[in-house]
Amino acid sequence: MSISSAAHAQSATEDVKAKAQRLVSPLVDARDDRLRVVATFEHQVTGVTVAPDGRIFVNFPRWTEDAPVSVAELMPDGSTRPYPNEEWNSWRNARMSELSPNDHFVCVQSVVADQRGSLWVVDPAAPNAEKTIKGGPKVVEIDLKSNNAKRSYPIPPEVAGPGSYLNDVRIAPDGKFAYLTDAGSPGGLIVLDIQSGEAWRVLSDDPSTQFDPSVNVMTDGKPLRRPDGRQPLFNADSLALSKDGGTLYWQALTGKTLYRIATSAIQNRDAASHVRPETVATTEPADGLWTDENDNIYLSSLANNAVKIINPRDGSIRQVLTDSRLRWPDTFSQGPDGHIYVTASHIQDSPWFHMAWTDKNFTLFKFMPGDLDGERKGK
Fold first, then answer.
1. pLDDT tens digits for range 342-358
2. Which of 185, 182, 184 has the alpha carbon at shortest distance from 202?
3. E strands in 162-235
């Protein structure tokens, strides 16, 4: 047997084992009834956001399939509708020569509703997280009252180059700036002046925005590896903003350090080139961050299928919820009723790491922060 054939056979065997483990896992895995199912989806979901009026929006990236919808509103009956309309969602990888990338969603990574009536859509325009489509990287602002695209902010190639992957976004409370992470190459932060439309990179290729080569991304008790043996090496990914808008937090997904910086230091392009980040806490590989009303930071634990809370004042961390259904907790958002929503994107179960999907239970959950102070309820 050739080396490639042997590797293929080994990968196939491991996939069969993984699928078998997922089938029996509901019989043995721990669950927490404080984590409630909101909706399930047929396609891989990453981003979620809840608008001040309670409307819920999700997004589906084009990673391992040519997803039929990129951005959707979750309706009360559990169904979804393309948002803001079908035309913005009409891009297909198979039709890329027919459609313009600047006014269609190419590969949406995240959605965030602000407190000023807008939904912000981050489109790195890099299907399968590979090379960006020319003219595609952008941030789109949608007016939630009219349900129309209000403005599209193209991110030029000198800011989002061929190897970039725009990841997460936070909007300043005064609506003047948007802050983004770039998980691609090189990793970095991006500042967008919302009024002028100008964007610039911050801490590009800085150690604070790069993957940590000493870190292993662990899932199911073992290092996560692609079929060819490579481990995931993701740069600056998760992002959080203090409630007053004065402090920005981030970390690399393949990392173990949470950093912060004063937003006032990066709101000017020239001054931003001289900034130095501050270390907040020693963490672990995580995909999602969220700041609550007391400026505590929620962190998604990939290794533990869990949610943890960081106290940014002293760097202490405590685990508050774990559930076997929470496979790759991805994105957080908080609704007007106080519930925190979180997606399970099942990245470790995807064809990136197997020959085919081993678990496609793509789910949106929610939990009430106040319930986390009580005794864990398992079943």
1. 999 999 999 999 999 99
2. 182
3. 166-171, 177-182, 188-193, 199-202, 218-219, 222-223
